[in-house]
What we know:
Blueprint: E1 2-8, H1 11-16, E2 24-29, H2 35-41, E3 49-54, E4 57-59, E5 70-75
Amino acid sequence: MIRVTIRFYADLKERYSPGQEEGVVPLDLEEGSRVSEVFKELNIDDREIGFLLRDDEKVQKDAELRDGDLIHFFSFAAGG
């Protein structure tokens, strides 16, 4: 298992991390999981996502996740 942290911005915070003021959601996934698994686990509509960052690097949904990754989800409204 790996643990990643998901951080939502702008309008995504209210939708995907309700009650979390900082928009942060910890998530445990299987080793070798990809960003696309986050979409499935959290029931995220990919049409709402402008772009993704893994730590400080722009990534696509097929990027493999590593233990401790911080994935930033930005909506189109947030500048994506």
